[in-house]
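Quick check before the chapter quiz. The format below is the same one you will see on the exam, so make sure you can read both the input and the output lines.
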Amino acid sequence: MKYPDSKMIVGIIAFNNIKYCPYIKPYTHILDEMNIKYNIIYFDRDGVDEKDDVLIPVSWNKEKSKIYNFLIFSQIVKRIIKNINYDKLIVLTTVPGILLFPVLLGKYIHNYLIDIRDYTFEKYFLFRFLEKLLIKNAKVRVISAPGFRKFLPDSNYVMCHNTTYDFSIKNKLVKSDNLIVIGYIGSISYANQCKVLIDLVKNDTRFCFYFYGNDVTGNTITNMISEANCDRIKYFGAYEPKDKDKLIQSVDILFNAYGNNEDKLIYAISNKFYDSIFYKKPMITSPNTDMSLLLDVFSYDIDSNTKSLDEVYAWYQGINDEKMDDLTEKWSERITTEQSSFVNAIKNDFLK
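Here is the expected output.
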């Protein structure tokens, strides 16, 4: 990528391979639009050469511990920052922010952005203390879910929704007159929660449970599907990104019942939230999670205490088209407004 002469250069710091960091794109889009030069310093955990002139990989040593790699990452990134002398830093996720806090609270105080994507180690006092300092002294603070305000210190946060959907496109709610297909679309994990629904669907001929994506549990879930020996429970394997639209449209209910035994599961908004809003697909969720709360009556909670799908069936049949339209319209407007505020904060506050 070539840039015209620019007075500013920005360093973007990512804690994973680029393919796992789609939340980089809103930043690079703005920087490209404004003709501002940037590098992306990223942790190459996969050992994959992601060729691009703007990329600066930091290798992960698989022979060493996680702590060792974190410390080496910190040292190398500090050296890169010093050598290139960036004008501004965009720090993606909290942990690299903690690792780089001497630099951020030193030379780059009020000249960095912190982007918080998950609940991490907030239960530890020292982590919370440093995180509070990082948030207080950042120029802009970005979060990806409104529930993050529950565990983060009080501050002025900007929402950046992890979606590229054009919400001016209006889809219709389409309900099944026959078998109701529940679809798990994405990286397949959370084996215990999947087992609950597999057992329920196996004993209820009104439902199907279809899996689309890589099984990242070491075949635990695909083995469960085989053992169920039910033609209404199927694993279709990995899919191409271009096929995601077709797959979502082919199911009746999205599966997002990942449990609530971890804080990150309680507060996070997964990509399936946006799939649900855009395509008007109701969702199976876990109780006491923000995903359940935000989708309101268009989500249904199941867990290990759920003994049958009778109530799920009644809930699905009772979904009201008009209320679904109202909910999706409300969220479409909110997402569009908050994304506009995010862009404004980057352009007019952070990069000015």
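If your answer matched, good. The two ends are 23 Å apart (CA to CA).
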